């Protein structure tokens, strides 16, 4: 693993997102944006979510593919104008993009 798995420290994702928003002038955020940012740097760092960023922008390269798969699946369901950076996560789309639960487990 090239770097830390995430930059949240002991904060929950919601706490990380609120801290990022406060450090960046109260910019709005969604759960997907918070997830992406937590894999790019600390909440106080000069970072922002850009869907065009390469896999190297994230602490773990697989984060990029997960974000891309979710965004594509969500735009199929919600339409091409759907904005992943501000909309809440859709649990059904998460399951579709992730391939569902392995072996039918709960």
TrEMBL record:
**InterPro entries recorded for this chain?**
EN-1/SPM
Source domain of life = Eukaryota
GO terms classed as biological process = transposition
Which residue ranges are recorded for the region named Disordered? 71-106
PANTHER family for the chain: AUTONOMOUS TRANSPOSABLE ELEMENT EN-1 MOSAIC PROTEIN-RELATED, TRANSPOSASE TNP1_EN_SPM-LIKE DOMAIN-CONTAINING PROTEIN
What protein name is recorded for this chain? Answer: Uncharacterized protein
Q: Which organism is it from?
A: Eragrostis curvula
């Amino acid at each position: 693993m090239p770097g830390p798995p995430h930059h949240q420290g002991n904060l929950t994702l919601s706490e990380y997102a609120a801290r990022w928003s406060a450090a960046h002038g109260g910019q709005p955020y969604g759960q997907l944006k918070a997830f992406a940012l937590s894999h790019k740097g600390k909440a106080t760092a000069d970072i922002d979510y850009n869907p065009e960023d390469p896999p190297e922008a994230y602490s773990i390269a697989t984060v990029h593919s997960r974000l891309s798969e979710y965004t594509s699946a969500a735009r199929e369901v919600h339409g091409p104008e759907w904005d992943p950076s501000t909309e809440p996560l859709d649990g059904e789309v998460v399951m579709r993009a992730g391939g569902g639960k392995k072996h039918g487990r709960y």
